[in-house]
Amino acid sequence: MREDWESGEERESDAPDFDFRRILDIVRRQRVIVLLVTLPLLVPATVLPFMLKHYFEATATIAIQAAPKALDFGGEIVPGVRDERAIEDTMLTLVYSEAVLGQVVDQLPSGAAPSQSLLDYVKMRLNGETEPVIPTQQQERAMRLKALREQIEVGLNGGGSFLLISSRGGTADAAAWLVNSVADAYVRYLQMRRDEASNRAVTWLNQQVYELRDQIAIKESAVAELVAKNQVSPSAAGDTKDTDSIAGIDDTLQTARIDLIATRQRLAELAPRAAAAATTRGQSDRQLREDYQAAQRALEAARLRFTPTHPEVRRLEGMLSDLGSRLGAAGLTDQPDLTATEEIEFQRLRGDSARLEARVRALERARDEMMGVGDGGVRSEALSKYKRLQGELEIDKQLLSVLLTRRNESLLTAADKQTGAYVLDYAVAPMWPAGPSRRKYLVMGWVAAIAAGVGLGLLRELLDRRMRDPEGIARALGVQTIGLIPAVDDKNALPEHQAGRAKRGPAAESYRNLRTSILFATREAKLSSIVITSAIAGEGKTTTSLNLASTFAQMGRRVILIDADLRRGRVDRVFNLPRSPGLADILEGKFTFEECTQRPDTASYEVLTAGTYPDNPSELLASNAFATLMSRLRGEYDLVVLDSPVLLAVPDALLLAADADATLLVHRPGSVELRALKRMREDLRRAGARVLGVVFNWVDSSDRSSYPSYLESPYLEVGGGKKRRGREGRS
Length: 731
Prior knowledge:
Oligomer: single chain
CATH architecture of the domain at 473-706: 3-Layer(aba) Sandwich
Strand order of the largest sheet: 5-11-10-6-9-7-8
Shape: elongated
Largest sheet: 7 strands, parallel
Number of helices: 29
CATH class of the domain at 473-706: Alpha Beta
CATH topology of the domain at 473-706: Rossmann fold
């Protein structure tokens, strides 16, 4: 046993196997808390599901059609039409819009003043209001729209080809009516939008046709005026050969003009540096610069308004060139002189400029001669304008034909009354409610109530630091479990007298099993004295001492039970014996052992009570008188059972355990914390006590994690009678 005691540290580190039955044991121990929490919650959890009102669900299906091509044309060019016809992209939002649901709200009867609920009353009081707020007409409409939006659900199916509208209502007819009303309102709104779009498209097309016809009339008048004023014949204007020749001359003339402009620009860059250094005539340097800048600005403006061959452009170019030469001659430029190469280039450009000017004038005369008719001729501008007007007239007539075709298609589409959607399936009033499922809410409520009670019980168990697991307690004490004593259910039988000679039952047999375990544990050494102790009071050390002494006495051994608890001994009260004289009186020398020993009528062993309570119990137990007394008792009796005080409060038990042959710990699960058990182990180890093990007292037999089921047997039944004989054939 000492080896087991010394190896307690190793066994303490072993982790116990988890058993799910421990959860049930915890619930059983905390059953009062679980019931106090669960039962009040079960009442509303049972009543509320039956107070819920049933609701019905109905669904309507709307088929979405493609937009007509006639409206597509208007949507391409009419502002705003594309946003209004984008129905497929916004159909879900459109169902919840006021434009659709407002039609349903208008069909509802006007309600009376809203009833005031308890929550509204509390809010009114918290806000300091004395009268309920009556909503305005707009507020009431907004409230109804919000209620409708909460009651309906919209979804798409078939890749956006079908729109599903569902609703919930207190009655089957209400749910079906609401869904069908929303579906009809949705289709009507689309019809209205399509009619408006069709009307706008037709109106716009008519306007474009009228404007285009006016433009054609104006241009035809302008063509007629040109023909009459400039004598332009359609045949001359339409001659293909002359037209090709004129086009060739125009291309050559354009090329010559471009070359001339490039030559003049280069000359303008070189002219200021190549001009003579003579001063200007009668002008100051400042005025010369201002004239040059003004001529430059006028030339830029003329080039924007006229062609490069226009006389005004040519005049300004010559003026700008002359002013530039004069600025260079006056020495008003800081540019370097021309190099030899630049001087050659300058002279060549002057010749090219004169040659190009002559070529441009010759080409212009040739073009005018080819375009002339009769003696007077016609100006090129008039003929160009005539051709431009003819081309625009041709384009306008083609566009007019297209607009007329589109207008006719739009009119046909409007006549067909295509809405873009139609109700495919109307909702039918359902026969059975869709919810709520009272059974589901009832089960959920019961589960929540039970979970709350069990959870609070588990939380209370977790917060409780006291140990209840026998295996864990044995590991904490560093000893082995040597016995399990069940709780006594018989209220008429005292726990101290469970192991009498004629006693049967689980408790009596458990004490006999404890006696057998002690005998096997001490067979290598003689057991003359044993100390029975516990951590705190109320764990059953006195009960264990009495029953254990009775079991050893039943074996024919001479046993004496000594009440060594000189502070709160209670052996005398169990047997209704006088307390004194007893052990304390013997140790103080007042009485002899023979005068104090008693033998109760109900016991088969002798008893030595505690005696008069002394002022120094620890000193008496550590005195030579007590050692002499114990030496005498070991010689006269086979076993001395010492019922000692508790371990944690006073040192008396340690003094007794140090001199006794063995020590037996009695513990009631759930009585102390882990740190108290560890302190007990350390105190007993320092005292050098020989601890046989721990016996668990008052163990609940229904706790399968602590009290194994194999300890319940037909052999333990009291009053076997017929029941026992009926089982003999099977034993």
